[in-house]
Amino acid sequence: SAVISQKPSRDICQRGTSLTIQCQVDSQVTMMFWYRQQPGQSLTLIATANQGSEATYESGFVIDKFPISRPNLTFSTLTVSNLSPEDSSIYLCSVESAVNYGYTFGSGTRLTVV
Amino acid sequence: DAKTTQPPSMDCAEGRAANLPCNHSTISGNEYVYWYRQIHSQGPQYIIHGLKNNETNEMASLIITEDRKSSTLILPHATLRDTAVYYCIVRVADTDKLIFGTGTRLQVFP
Q1: Cis peptide preceding A8, ω within 30 of 0
Q2: Burial class of residue A25 (count of CB atoms within 10 Å of its CB; 0-12, 13-18, 19+)
Q3: Between B42, B97, B103, which is nearest A107 by CB?
Q4: CB within 8 A of A71, min separation 6: which ones?
Q5: Distance from CA of B109 to the nearest CA of A (A)
Q6: CB-based contacts of B91, cutoff 8 Å, min separation 6
Q7: Chain B residue with Cα closest to A45
Q8: Could you read off the pLDDT of B61-106 as tens digits, one per residue?
Q9: Residue B92: other Cβ atoms inside 10 A
Q10: pLDDT per position as a tens digit, A52-76
């Protein structure tokens, strides 16, 4: 299955600033997915990122707050903008595996906003 | 919204089979059922998935009812390392999205 490298693994940021999270995959994939996991909660899908087109956002998530780039078939970034303490969460990227049609997840980025 | 419901928690004795139920009564004919687990805030780990036939791999078995409205994940010989949150997920047809529900917290005890 695909191997995902997600960076940074954790960060502490000041409110009002932004954090950009990178997701690198060792193989070409059509779609990449970004999730948020708030403390003690399940995963919530933020958006789907396709190469060469704008990301598709889920209800409750907007591009101004969570801009996504997808410059090629192996890489994507998620930026969390204008940070507030409510943005403190784990953010994860995910791709579909061409081998068994399961989905592989990155190890996550733990964001703390102070 | 998630299309699955699971019990919030379950216990299982080490070495015994863990049977984790999931209801997905609104599942469509071309939507797959996926199971993942998450161990202490690590990224979710793929376990198994299926459409309508029962499936088995080195980790677990997946039993899907004939009407496809529910399924059961079976860990045949649970170990302490199987303690995790288990998510039953329906892959949304035509979108390839996985929408997570609230999951079952499985505690395996000695």
Answers
A1: yes
A2: buried
A3: B42
A4: A51
A5: 22
A6: B31, B32, B33, B34, B49, B97, B98
A7: B99
A8: 999 999 999 999 999 999 999 999 999 999 887 778 888 889 999 9
A9: 15
A10: 888 999 999 999 999 999 999 999 9
